[in-house]
TrEMBL record:
GO terms for cellular component: outer membrane-bounded periplasmic space; plasma membrane. It catalyses: Preferential cleavage: (Ac)2-L-Lys-D-Ala-|-D-Ala. Also transpeptidation of peptidyl-alanyl moieties that are N-acyl substituents of D-alanine; [GlcNAc-(1->4)-Mur2Ac(oyl-L-Ala-gamma-D-Glu-L-Lys-D-Ala-D-Ala)](n)-di-trans,octa-cis-undecaprenyl diphosphate + beta-D-GlcNAc-(1->4)-Mur2Ac(oyl-L-Ala-gamma-D-Glu-L-Lys-D-Ala-D-Ala)-di-trans,octa-cis-undecaprenyl diphosphate = [GlcNAc-(1->4)-Mur2Ac(oyl-L-Ala-gamma-D-Glu-L-Lys-D-Ala-D-Ala)](n+1)-di-trans,octa-cis-undecaprenyl diphosphate + di-trans,octa-cis-undecaprenyl diphosphate + H(+). It is found in: Cell membrane. It comes from the Bacteria. The chain crosses the membrane at residues 5-28. This is Penicillin-binding protein 2A. Keywords: Carboxypeptidase, Cell membrane, Cell shape, Cell wall biogenesis/degradation, Glycosyltransferase, Hydrolase, Membrane, Multifunctional enzyme, Peptidoglycan synthesis, Protease, Transferase, Transmembrane, Transmembrane helix. Residues 704-717, 747-761 have a biased composition (Polar residues). It comes from Alicyclobacillus hesperidum. Residues 659-753 form the Fibronectin type-III domain. Residues 697-717, 747-842 are annotated as: Disordered.
């Protein structure tokens, strides 16, 4: 039995040797060797912008050192650490090969390298980093060829001139310049034994042992190299101990051609991007490449100015506990996805390279809402701007109780208001209604990386993603809103041409339809409101259409303890008609030492300001553009805070096809009816289906009737109610819907009878003034047609809606609304009259979005809303100009 096993083992060993020999023979025969490649003079790579202009050069010519220019300590340190038999072996180390082979075969992979210096030189010059047995055979074969064609001195010099040593350096000349500021060609004696040991420790893992990023690991590695030198007899123990006592004494130094002196932020981003796509910095810095990018110099220069120059440091939140807030920015062309400019860090002391935060994932906060909640809801066709959302704090299951940023805010809001003022509860409720999968599937199609666990919880509605999202991914996701619903994946490289003229890499647009063009247009209008009137006002740029969404991420309560206003991340993701950008500010660490605060400014407002300053600089020489004016919703109703949805914006002398326009609703108090009228233009006979929903008592949809005419009277209304009527055209032949539904809001009066203690105008002890005063002129049709609404009175509740019939000496406080900025006149169709008079608006505490007015004249609509201390909401609307 023993003899049998010995025979089997012997045969197996012989078979392995034969197979290895055959593999090695084939590798040698099939691996061409070109000695001239090792003798080529290194040339810098040239980087070009999208317009063909030269951005920068990367890499310096003539950085190679001869063997005699390399300090003796540097030679000894690298040999003792990387290949201690270098001076005596034939290019391969047989003992090391068999030792590593045993480990590799046992593990089923190349777990150990056992590469000699010639083999390593072969790998970095001729091969890739792929760990396969065939590559290992080729590496050995090329190492032997190198050994036969060059002297040991030449091999060592070539190796030390080509080995990557971290911080975008290649070779010891560049590394000595980068870390110590020493030019080895001019002053080689300045490199100390400790310095040489530090550099010799880097080839194994340049990033892990980077002394600028990981000084403790670099120090330990340096001292290990010193002990290697002692072990192999290059220095004494006393010399090693003396060198080990020396501090690292490193700092970041730029040198000609490294990119840091001309454009550090783009250099950092470009090298990182290329490395992620299989092109290492060593190939860029010495390969003589021509790199054609999608960069727009105007955008990149603007990013540099804001992130690097120091002139815009006030845009960023102030440092807390001595820490510096970091940031990232990326801008893309929405039509192609081409990256126009990027920055993965701010200027931070001596480490310009830093961490490329363009690729750092974190929670996006509320900036995910347009992608995850609102666009998917509109895409279903079941939700409109005026749809009422439940904003009452509640348990959504498993103890999940999201809170709104404003305490005591409205408990029922329109969809528009929910996004404009970033209502968390309403957004979670909306995702619950449409279904998690509906929102998540659209987000995933839009480039947001999701896991299966993300489909299991509603927290994704407000940014609670398992793996988070990067600024690069957010910029890509927002392209769909700016590109007719088409997602454009960001990319940087058009093509890369090598020194021989061959194209070695290229990219191009990668696109997919995520949502309809109508949904994208509707979302743009909603997010314009966020910028014009909501949480993103810092991003406004006069003359330009700007849309976007803010996002703020707080720390877990367990971390911040008694500091609920501590913030970890601030976001603004937005766009103009020509570019899309994502801004993120925050910290890499997650502990109580690293934080921003909600005061004096919400960090998302800082992010919006950064976005503004970048686009202001980037677009200063461009003709200002607005987003297309249609198809967009417009208002024909009169109820404050609720706007109209559907139909296309009417234009002069235009006749829409397959659409409804001019929907009007009038309440007749004498007979308690609501009369509806509209216009329709359809290519085939239609039936109009009319429904209504009460915004002050129940959100149940109630059928009103069907008609083939363009008018209808609803005689089943109740006094003191507020309704939103919707008209949908259906085909008489098929019964299917045609075109988009349109809606209008109307009030049926506000309870004229006063409760005890409330007389006349609804004023009583301790109660709010229950009147809405409106002197409004809105030019809805031709000429100077003027309508006037002098308001209605409620019993104590105030505003439009049913009276609350409060008893004497009681009060019903109403939550205050967010502050409202002044509205510039002349915006779009007469301009949105915007305000949030929550104090007395809508007795059911429903708060609408912008108070739009359709004004086909050249006039303006200006709205001033004042929430009085006693709860009254006063509205003054004035439309001016001559109608057409």
């Amino acid at each position: 039995m023993v003899r049998r096993w010995i025979s089997i083992v012997t045969a197996s060993v012989i078979l392995i040797i034969v197979l290895l020999g055959a593999g090695f023979y084939l590798a040698v025969r099939m691996t061409p060797f070109q000695p001239s490649v090792l003798e080529e003079v290194h040339q810098p790579s040239i980087v070009y912008a999208e317009d063909g202009s030269r951005l920068m050069s990367l890499g310096s010519p003539n950085t190679d050192l001869t063997y005699d220019q390399i300090p003796k300590d540097m030679q000894d340190a690298i040999v003792a650490t990387e290949d201690h038999t270098f001076w005596t072996n034939s290019g391969i180390d047989i003992r090391s090969i068999f030792r590593s082979l045993f480990v590799d075969l046992s593990s089923g992979s190349l777990a150990q390298g056992a590469s000699t210096i010639p083999e390593q030189l072969a790998k970095i010059t001729y091969l890739t980093d792929q760990k396969t047995f065939s590559r290992k055979f080729k590496q050995i074969a090329l190492g032997l060829q190198i050994e036969r064609n060059f002297t040991k001195q030449e091999i060592l010099a070539m190796y030390l001139n080509r080995i990557p040593l971290g911080e975008s350096t290649v070779g010891i000349e560049q590394a000595a310049l980068r870390y110590f500021g020493i030019d080895l060609k001019k002053e080689p004696n300045k490199l100390t034994l400790a310095d040489a040991a530090l550099l010799a420790g880097l080839p194994q893992a340049p990033s892990a042992y980077d002394p600028l990023q990981h000084p403790k690991a670099a120090l330990d590695r340096r001292n290990q190299v010193l002990q290697n030198m002692v072990h192999y007899g290059y220095i004494t123990e006393a010399q090693a101990q003396a060198a080990a006592k020396q501090p690292l004494d490193v700092s970041f130094h730029s040198f000609p051609g490294d990119g840091w002196s001309s454009d550090p932020l783009l250099t950092n981003f470009l090298l990182d991007y290329l490395n992620r796509h299989g092109i290492p910095p060593s190939e860029v810095m010495q390969g003589g490449l021509k790199i054609y990018t999608t960069i727009d110099p105007a955008v990149q220069n603007a990013i540099n100015e804001v992130f690097w120059s120091g002139k815009y440091d006030s845009d960023f939140p102030g440092a807390t506990t001595g820490t510096v807030v970091e940031g990232a920015a990326v801008f893309v062309d929405p039509k192609t996805g081409g990256i126009l400019g990027a920055a993965g860090s701010r200027k931070q002391g001596y480490v310009p390279l830093g961490l490329d935060r363009v690729y750092q994932a974190s929670s996006p906060g509320s900036s995910i809402k347009p992608i995850m909640d609102y666009a998917p809801a509109l895409q279903t066709g079941n939700w409109t701007y005026t749809s009422i959302l439940d904003n009452q704090p509640q348990d959504f299951g498993d103890g999940y109780e999201p809170q709104n940023w404003e305490v005591g805010g409205p408990t029922r809001v329109t969809l528009q208001y929910g996004l404009e003022w970033s209502q968390n509860v309403a957004s979670v409720w909306l995702l619950q209604q449409i279904g998690i999968s509906t929102g998540a599937n659209m987000a995933k199609a839009d480039g947001i990386p999701l896991t299966s666990k993300d489909y299991e919880h509603l927290g994704i509605a407000i940014g609670g993603l398992i793996n988070g999202v990067t600024p690069m991914e957010m910029a890509g996701a927002y392209t769909a809103f700016d590109n007719n619903g088409i997602h454009s994946k960001p990319y940087l490289i058009n093509r890369i041409v090598n020194a021989q003229g061959g194209i070695i890499y290229h990219e191009g647009p990668q696109q997919n339809q995520v949502m309809s063009a109508q949904t994208a247009a509707d979302m743009t209008r909603l997010m314009q409101d966020v910028v014009d009137f909501g949480t993103g006002q810092s991003a406004k740029l006069p003359g330009w259409g700007v849309a976007g969404k803010t996002g703020t991420v707080q720390y877990d309560s367990g971390l911040v303890g008694s500091h609920p206003n501590w913030v970890r991340d601030g976001w603004f993701d937005g766009y103009t008609p020509t570019l899309v950008g994502s801004i993120h500010i925050g910290y890499d660490e997650s502990n109580d030492e690293y934080h921003m605060t909600m005061s004096p400014v919400d960090p998302s407002a800082n992010a919006a300001q950064i976005f503004h300053d970048i686009i202001a600089l980037a677009l200063q020489n461009e003709q200002a553009q607005q987003f297309p004016e249609g198809p967009y919703p417009y208002i024909t109703g009169t109820a404050e805070g609720v706007n109209y949805v559907g139909s296309t914006t009417p234009t002069k002398n235009s006749t829409p096809t397959n659409s409804i326009s001019g929907l009007h609703a009038t309440y007749n108090a004498a007979n308690n009816t609501v009369s509806l009228s509209w216009s329709g233009s359809f290519s085939s006979p239609v039936t109009y289906v009319v429904t209504r929903v009460s915004t002050s008592s129940s959100d149940e949809t109630v059928p009103v009737g069907q008609t083939t005419s363009t008018s209808l009277t609803d005689s089943s209304v109740q006094p003191g109610e507020s309704y939103v009527y919707t008209v949908q055209a259906t085909s008489e032949q098929s019964g299917l819907d045609i075109g988009q539904p349109v809606s209008v809001a109307v009030s049926t009066g506000a309870g004229q009878s006063a409760g005890p203690g409330n007389q006349a105008n609804g004023i009583g002890p301790g109660n709010a003034t229950g009147s809405v005063m409106g002197n409004g002129t809105v030019n809805n049709t031709t000429g100077n047609s003027v309508t006037s609404d002098n308001g209605t009175n409620t019993a104590g509740g105030g505003g439009v809606g049913p009276g609350t019939n409060n008893t004497a000496n009681t009060s019903t406080p109403t939550p205050a609304a967010p502050p409202v900025p002044p509205t510039p006149p002349g915006h779009l169709n007469g301009g949105p009259g915007h305000g949030k008079g929550v104090g007395g608006a809508l007795g059911s505490n429903v708060v609408g979005g912008a108070g739009y007015a359709s004004n086909t004249s050249n006039g303006t609509v200006q709205t001033n809303h004042v929430s009085l201390a006693n709860g009254a909401t006063q509205t003054n609307e004035a439309g001016s100009g001559n109608g057409t």
